[in-house]
């Protein structure tokens, strides 16, 4: 195939120009991307366009360009109303997965899955101010035959109650239409951030702005925000002391059983409407 060395025939910086070039490259066959001068110019443009996004996630500009190349070859991009919007979103998600994969010491493909993405980044013993051996229970040993340590060996009720509350929250969302893997991944992620933050209000504000978590969990904005308000409670001062302000986790921890929550019509409606598979919860993805 003859290499095009003349001036650019299409303005691929626009949506329609990109579509026209992608259609021509698709019709040119597998070798067109290697031999067409406009294809090379397009990839240089993509590397420059997505360089800031790549740097934000600790990647090289050409890693972002590589992600752009992969999505540009798909039929969905050629047929999209705005091809550049599809490419940009795909590059963003790929950069997030690459960053999470580097932090989790796993492949980007695994980092995209909910069961892996909910974990925190790997930490070295030296990363914390206090040695890990001082506070992590995995490094603590008690001689259970010693009467003096028998009391310390008893399980902590608060820990058991918290674990039970988390499982009941997951069960509640699953019963009300949330996919089990999505419910577990999202709620465990929220609980982990809550434990780090130390307060519901701080955790709510941090999670509300956590777009990377929402992208990896593949949740639309209404579903994500509905889950946060339901699990952690509505942070508005007007709801302080009410069921809406307490949230499901706190209500379970203070002794309200699951059957009582299921009789709360407002709560049931909120969770059901926010489910990703429902028409209301499925809008606003982005």
> Beta-strand percentage?
under 5%
- Summed over residues and divided by their number, the pLDDT gives a mean of 78
Low-confidence stretches: 1-8, 141-158, 278-286
Question: Main beta sheet, described?
Answer: none
Spell out the helices and strands N to C.
Answer: HHHHHHHHHHHHHHHHHH
From the helix content, strand content and strand pairing, which structural class follows?
Answer: mainly alpha
How many structural domains are formed by the residues?
Answer: 2
Distance between the termini: 40 Å
Helical fraction equals 55-70%
The count of β-strands is 0
Shape: elongated
Count helical runs: 18
Structural Rg: 25 Å
Overall description:
This is Serine/arginine repetitive matrix protein 2. α11 runs antiparallel to α12 and α12 crosses α13. The protein folds into two domains: 98 residues; 119 residues, no CATH class. It has 286 residues and is mainly alpha-helical. The chain starts with 14 loop residues before the first helix and ends in a 12-residue tail after the last helix.
In short:
By secondary structure, the protein is an all-alpha fold.
